[in-house]
Design brief:
Elements: H1 2-17, H2 24-31, H3 33-56, H4 60-70, H5 74-87, H6 96-113, H7 122-154, H8 159-190, H9 194-218, H10 225-229, H11 246-255, H12 257-277, H13 279-285, H14 292-317, H15 322-345, H16 348-384, H17 389-392, H18 394-418, H19 429-454, H20 459-470
């Protein structure tokens, strides 16, 4: 307890000494960029599978396999783009050009996924989807998302501001996801249903994404290399040069055990989200009301946004992120266990309450994740004297795409394995049992795994000890 109090006091003292870099306009402008990211992510994770199976007529298992194969390109592309961002030097900075121009490709590919021509052969339709999906995820979304996340470390050195940015960012993210999950089914129906309606909705979302992404890029300015290095004199390891290759960057990542823990946690968080987003099947066939997806989305995202509002203050109160994140995810895991019990009891109101409790508990890690990664990047700098912020933030894009892809692919495989028939009014008993496993049990298990990882993720303490050794 004395040690924790000492660290808390040092963190509090350090906070008061830290220079501030951002206005509220900068913070809110930055955070609004996640409207763009979640226009893509929420639409794909919640609706692409049911669009492909029930509107286009594709096989869920084949789609799942294509998504899984697509993910093979993602791991390499994440580190590749992260390294490119680290090596970029323009008047706009390192990350902002990638964030700005990468999103135009995202918008085009998003629309392409929902524009699969009906007159193509089945094989050609699968190929169309695979190419558009892979270009989106392994290319344009990677460039945009890594750059967006890396800005946390490039526009301020103040850790409290980084936590605030993360909280504001994810408020926009969860608000956008909630809105898309609430209105999409109704919008598709409003535009007449079928493939043409899905195409219209995708075009609208893509335009919204382009506008919000551009405004976010223009609302902030990156610090110069001199400003970033100010007050942090750490010498590189003997024999290391300032320039480094992609392989060197990868080696720096795997030497950082906290990066590996954050990466694993982020991937599991995104698999968790993807399995919840597959709830459209659970709502449609178990609860018999597809519109309940929007209701559950409110009970996930409103508590999450409320939690994010208080995350910066809670980080200060707890003297850092470690204890807060661990306690939060313990509550989140217990909340999801409550959803399992309520689901088998057949009580939708109790499911909603437990869903809200779980979301509230999970919110601190969402809010301080970017600050946690920045702290993790500082660990690499303190141990190796290298700044690899862009490469370090590859874990956010990798986690989003790999986790979301695995979750969606897994859903496709499990649906196919259970004998799911797209568009059928009644599904088999094996499919109904599988839907319970997918929506009730799997999210709880993923939360438990994240909680176990968080017991070891105390990078703040490690950095404090390193600073003391460096004098």
């Amino acid at each position: 307890m004395d040690e924790n109090k000492e660290i808390k006091d040092k963190n509090e003292q350090h906070k008061h000494e830290e220079k501030t870099y951002l206005t509220w306009v900068n913070k809110i402008g930055y955070g609004s960029g996640d409207i763009a990211g979640n226009v893509v992510y929420a639409l794909l994770s919640a609706f692409v599978m049911i669009f492909l199976t029930d509107t286009v007529g594709m096989n869920a298992g084949v789609v799942g396999t294509l998504i899984a194969v697509s993910k093979l390109f993602d791991g390499v592309s994440d580190i590749f783009f992260g390294s490119l961002i680290d090596k970029t030097n323009t008047k706009m900075g390192k990350a902002r050009p990638w964030m700005l121009y990468g999103y135009f490709g995202c918008a085009i590919c998003l629309v392409a996924i929902f524009c699969i021509p009906a007159n193509l052969s089945a094989t050609a339709q699968y190929a169309w989807f695979f190419i558009a999906y892979t270009l989106l995820n392994a290319g344009f979304y990677t460039a945009n998302n890594i750059a967006y996340s890396a800005l946390t470390a490039l526009i301020t050195k103040n850790n409290h501001e980084r936590v605030q940015m993360g909280s504001i960012r994810f408020m926009f993210a969860f608000g956008t996801s909630m809105l898309i999950q609430t209105i999409t089914v109704g919008l598709v129906a409003y535009f007449g249903g079928g493939a043409a309606a899905w195409r219209t909705v995708a075009i609208i979302y893509a335009i919204v994404g382009v506008i919000s992404n551009t405004l976010s890029v223009m609302s902030v300015k990156e610090l110069t290399p001199e400003e970033l290095a100010e007050g942090e004199e750490v010498k590189p390891e003997p024999g290391e040069e300032e320039k480094y290759t992609l392989i060197d960057a990868f080696k720096l990542l795997i030497k950082n055990k906290y990066y590996l823990m954050i990466c694993a946690s982020y991937i599991l968080m995104q698999i968790y989200s993807a399995t919840l987003n597959m709830g459209i099947y659970y709502m449609t066939y178990v609860l018999k009301n597809a519109n309940l997806l929007g209701v559950f989305s409110w009970f996930i995202n409103i508590p999450m946004i409320i939690g994010l509002l208080f995350t910066p203050a809670l980080v200060l109160k707890f003297g850092g992120m470690y204890k807060l994140n661990l306690m939060g995810y313990t509550i989140g895991t217990l909340g999801r266990l409550g959803v399992v019990i309520a689901g088998y009891l057949g009580s939708v109101p109790l499911m909603l309450v437990c869903t809200a409790i779980a979301a509230l508990g999970m919110s601190p890690l969402q809010g301080d994740m970017n600050a946690l990664i920045a702290t993790c990047s500082e660990y690499t700098y303190l141990t190796h004297g290298k700044r690899v912020d862009g490469t370090m933030y590859s874990c956010t894009s990798l986690g989003t795409k790999l986790g979301g892809g695995i979750g969606t692919a897994l859903a496709g495989w499990l649906l196919a394995f259970s004998g799911y028939v797209g568009g059928a009014a009644v599904q088999s008993a094996s499919t109904m049992n599988m839907l319970h496993i997918m929506y009730l049990w799997m999210p709880m298990i993923f939360n438990l795994l994240i909680t176990l990882i968080l017991t070891r993720l105390n990078v703040e303490k490690a950095n404090e000890e390193l600073r003391e050794k460096l004098g």
